[in-house]
Amino acid sequence: MTAKIIDGKSFAEGLRGRIAGHVERLKTEHGITPGLAVVIVGHDPASQVYVSNKAKQTAEVGMASFKYELPEDVSEAELLELVRRLNEDDQVHGILVQLPVPKQINADKVIEAIVPSKDVDCFTPANVGKLTIGLPGPVSCTPLGSLMLLRDQLGSLEGLNAVIVGRSNLVGKPMAQLLLRDNATVTVAHSRTKNLADVVRGADIVIAAVGRPEMIRGDWIKPGATVIDVGINRVPAPEKGEGKTRLVGDVAFAEAVEVAGAITPVPGGVGPMTIACLLANTITTASLINGLVPPSDLTA
Ligand SMILES: NC(=O)C1=CN([C@@H]2O[C@H](COP(=O)(O)OP(=O)(O)OC[C@H]3O[C@@H](n4cnc5c(N)ncnc54)[C@H](OP(=O)(O)O)[C@@H]3O)[C@@H](O)[C@H]2O)C=CC1
Ligand SMILES: Nc1nc(=O)c2c([nH]1)NC[C@@H]1CN(c3ccc(C(=O)N[C@@H](CCC(=O)O)C(=O)O)cc3)C=[N+]21
Ligand SMILES: [Mg+2]
């Protein structure tokens, strides 16, 4: 049996269609045009492509898109000043500062400077707290996108064993909170976990968020399990020509696809969902800022 391949790209397209409907309603019924500001520091080519995609998709769903490109050597004070201006700007409902930032800038300080009501990444302590206790607010984009794919694939997650490999603030920890809320039994593994392969073998749901190309092998996967591969790793692809690269996940896809029940590919799995959920969060924050109840189909 080969696994069903979960088409995150097409699911994200459908989600963006629903988002466009909510944008239209906010405009016509409430006179609000949701706006997303994306800030990028430096000229890392991968980040540039990724930020351009976000700007394009933001405009496509009818939202206002603001893009700020700061030079690699910008001072921390200048970046903090821009964040403060965006905090005050009524046309902006979401602020995203693309990470990582150059060495002279303290990322924690930048995150702290973002007003929680516009924190569409769900990075600020206030929003992490809300997520944890289940209050309305933005939800970490990659975990939210992963959860939407899981619910679509499995229906209820109740009682299922979920193993998350990775405990970052960005992915692993918020993913654990969301899965708990859906009544899964959650294990969070990391670099000090003993017998990782055996831990993963007990999982009905595997979330791979390690940042190590193809580390999770096919024989770690329980037959029929659902595998969500968050990893995005660029590796050399000499077969495509000298100096060429390709993207792979944290799961050895060719092996796992023979064992799993369903699996997300890289690219075309979680990545497109992350961007769509950023737009979903901008609808959520635009609604809350204006005293409206956020649409329930765009959150956890
Ligand atoms: N698809 C998408 O939209 C997104 C993809 N990503 C990708 O997801 C991956 C993870 O990102 P992120 O969470 O930020 O990564 P981090 O580097 O912040 O965290 C990696 C986690 O993996 C754990 N880890 C590292 N090595 C091992 C190992 N050998 N065995 C077990 N656990 C290990 C670390 O453990 P410890 O805590 O002990 O150090 C850590 O908790 C990356 O490939 C990233 O590019 C990220 C964001 C969005
Ligand atoms: N403040 C902040 N918030 C983030 O959410 C954030 C960030 N900084 N910094 C970088 C990481 C990484 N990340 C990705 C999102 C989508 C794709 C994506 O769309 N990937 C495509 C492939 C893209 C390609 O071909 O390069 C896919 O998987 O199909 C990738 C990576 C968000 N991040
Ligand atoms: Mg990280």
From TrEMBL:
GO molecular function, one term: methenyltetrahydrofolate cyclohydrolase activity
TM regions (residue ranges): none
Keyword Chaperone found: no
Xref: Gene3D superfamilies: Leucine Dehydrogenase, chain A, domain 1 (3.40.50.10860), NAD(P)-binding Rossmann-like Domain (3.40.50.720)
Lipid metabolism recorded as keyword: no
Assigned EC number: 1.5.1.5, 3.5.4.9
InterPro entries in UniProt: Aminoacid_DH-like_N_sf, NAD(P)-bd_dom_sf, THF_DH/CycHdrlase, THF_DH/CycHdrlase_cat_dom, THF_DH/CycHdrlase_CS, THF_DH/CycHdrlase_NAD-bd_dom
UniProt entry keywords in alphabetical sequence: Amino-acid biosynthesis, Histidine biosynthesis, Hydrolase, Methionine biosynthesis, Multifunctional enzyme, NADP, One-carbon metabolism, Oxidoreductase, Purine biosynthesis
Domain (Tetrahydrofolate dehydrogenase/cyclohydrolase NAD(P)-binding) ranges: 140-287
Catalytic activity line of the entry: (6R)-5,10-methenyltetrahydrofolate + H2O = (6R)-10-formyltetrahydrofolate + H(+); (6R)-5,10-methylene-5,6,7,8-tetrahydrofolate + NADP(+) = (6R)-5,10-methenyltetrahydrofolate + NADPH
Annotated positions binding NADP(+): G166, R167, S168, I232
GO term, biological process aspect, one: methionine biosynthetic process
Pathway: One-carbon metabolism; tetrahydrofolate interconversion
Domain of life where this protein originates: Bacteria
Tetrahydrofolate dehydrogenase/cyclohydrolase catalytic domain ranges (all copies): 6-121
Listed GO CC annotations: cytosol
Subunit structure as annotated in this protein's UniProt entry: Homodimer.
Family: Belongs to the tetrahydrofolate dehydrogenase/cyclohydrolase family.
Role of this protein: Catalyzes the oxidation of 5,10-methylenetetrahydrofolate to 5,10-methenyltetrahydrofolate and then the hydrolysis of 5,10-methenyltetrahydrofolate to 10-formyltetrahydrofolate.
NCBIfam families: PRK14186.1, PRK14188.1
Protein name per the record: Bifunctional protein FolD
Species name: Devosia epidermidihirudinis
